[in-house]
């Protein structure tokens, strides 16, 4: 019997994208043939990879598609007409605004064109984020003509049009973007999102038929070995007595990285270790060499999601010092938060990050601080790190317990798989 086919659409290289990979693995476990359709952004990654042996049932294949056609130049930031006119000339700005308005999201339309031409039809399209939902709906319409189910689930991974990413977008254009997204939502078969707070916001503001299904970004259950891993000190040469403050994830602006670096310097013997990728990676590696930060600031490359628990368990505390400058940030609950709990590593979170703060305070899983104030961040870090050994061990155990009992992928994915089964009947 032919298995139903599912496509997880990811508008990045999926190298890997942890939420998309977890969804894909769960769909494979539910009996789907699964492809992650990702973006080929450069030549450093293969166009095809397999999660599992290629011949085995339950294998997830990741394929990366190159942008093509008229819109391909926009994927690289070098659109032909605008580039010739000059992006700063009045005519160049006018062309830029017109194209962005009429063809938004223009920078992924070349990728969409390739998907329409090359991606085989599927029964289920799981669209990760606003850059994928438009093409998912188009692909599903064509798939239904071939006899496939063509179901579309819109995964709202961020409330992106309520974020700092659109702070410079003119209000009329932003209104148009929102209207377009609402049109996509009306056509989708279902909406899922990352936490209850965002689900409530979407239910109140979007044209949804039912409240979005919540699929937390939780990690699979994991138990640290004894003794606990010490991968970070092994990789960095940091001495055993130096406490490790870990930042996981994207390295860039508005992540609290400057403030976290200053806060760690105010502690007696601690180092900020950054494990991730992003636009600030070179800048942060330069800070590693700054005499003021030497031995107290270390930048490491990202690791595969399957390896993150052991690396996170190697830290003494995690820090999420994101400033809550938008609704999207206030309601965020990113991978790094759940990864810390799954590894039994306590967290320090920004005071206005409402979802994470509520969990931390309710279950006593760390501390809360003003992310803009390095002195207050240092105070919160001391609150975690300077407990008695018995109290600190109990804190770690609380993090592990809530992850095992409530905040784990095995529990979180249940409502999503029930939704998919219902849509497929």
Descriptive report:
The protein has 425 residues and is of the alpha/beta class. The chain folds into two domains: 5-218 and 409-423, Glycogen Phosphorylase B (Rossmann fold, 3-Layer(aba) Sandwich); 231-405, Glycogen Phosphorylase B (Rossmann fold), CATH 3.40.50. The protein has helices spanning 18-29, 72-75, 80-85, 90-103, 109-118, 130-145, 171-187, 196-205, 231-236, 257-265, 281-289, 308-313, 327-330, 335-342, 354-363, 374-385, 389-405, 409-423; strands at residues 5-10, 33-39, 48-51, 60-65, 124-128, 151-156, 190-193, 213-214, 243-250, 270-277, 297-300, 317-320, 347-350, 366-369. The chain has an eight-stranded mixed β-sheet with strand order 3-4-2-1-5-6-7-8, with helices on both faces. Helix 7 (171-187) links the parallel strand 6 (151-156) and strand 7. Helix 10 crosses helix 16 (374-385). The longest helix has 17 residues, at 171-187. The two termini are 17 Å apart. The model is unreliable at 80-85 (pLDDT under 50).
Tags for this entry?
single chain; 425 residues; alpha/beta; Rossmann fold; eight-stranded mixed sheet; six-stranded parallel sheet; 18 helices; 14 strands
């Amino acid at each position: 019997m032919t298995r139903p086919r599912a496509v997880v659409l990811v508008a990045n290289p999926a190298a890997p994208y942890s939420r998309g990979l977890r969804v894909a693995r769960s769909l494979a476990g539910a009996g789907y043939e699964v492809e992650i359709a990702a973006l080929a952004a450069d030549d450093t990654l293969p166009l095809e990879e397999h999660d599992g042996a290629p011949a085995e049932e339950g294998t997830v294949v990741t394929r990366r598609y190159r942008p093509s056609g008229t819109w391909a130049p926009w994927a690289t930031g070098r659109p032909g007409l605008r580039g010739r006119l000059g992006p700063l000339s009045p005519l160049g700005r006018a062309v830029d605004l017109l194209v962005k308005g009429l063809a938004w999201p223009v920078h992924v339309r070349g990728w969409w064109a390739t998907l329409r031409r090359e991606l085989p039809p599927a029964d289920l399209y799981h669209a990760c984020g606003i850059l994928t939902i438009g093409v998912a709906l188009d692909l599903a319409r064509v798939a239904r003509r071939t006899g496939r189910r063509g179901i579309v689930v819109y995964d709202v991974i961020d409330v992106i049009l309520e974020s700092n990413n659109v702070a410079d977008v003119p209000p009329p254009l932003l209104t148009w973007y929102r209207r377009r997204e609402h049109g996509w939502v009306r056509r989708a078969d279902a909406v899922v999102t990352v936490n209850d707070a965002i689900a409530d916001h979407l239910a109140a503001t979007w044209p949804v038929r039912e409240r979005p299904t919540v699929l937390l970004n939780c990690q699979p259950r994991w138990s640290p070995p004894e003794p606990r891993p010490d991968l970070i000190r092994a990789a960095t040469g940091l001495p055993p007595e130096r406490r490790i403050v870990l930042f996981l994830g994207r390295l860039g602006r508005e992540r609290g990285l400057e403030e976290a670096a200053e806060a760690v310097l105010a502690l007696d013997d601690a180092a900020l270790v950054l494990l991730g990728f992003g636009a600030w990676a070179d800048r942060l590696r330069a800070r590693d060499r700054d005499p003021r930060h030497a031995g107290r600031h270390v930048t490491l490359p990202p690791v595969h999601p399957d390896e993150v628990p052991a690396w996170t368990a190697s830290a003494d505390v995690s820090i999420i010092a994101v400033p809550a400058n938008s609704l999207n940030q206030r309601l965020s609950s990113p991978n790094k938060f759940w990864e810390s709990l799954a590894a039994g590593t306590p967290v320090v979170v920004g005071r206005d990050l409402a979802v994470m703060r509520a969990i931390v305070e309710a279950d006593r899983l760390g501390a809360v601080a003003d992310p803009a104030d390095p002195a207050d961040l240092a105070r919160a870090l001391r609150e975690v790190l300077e407990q008695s050994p018995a109290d600190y061990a109990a804190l770690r155990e609380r993090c592990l317990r809530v992850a095992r009992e409530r905040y784990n992928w095995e529990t979180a994915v249940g409502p999503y798989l029930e939704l998919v089964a219902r849509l497929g009947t």
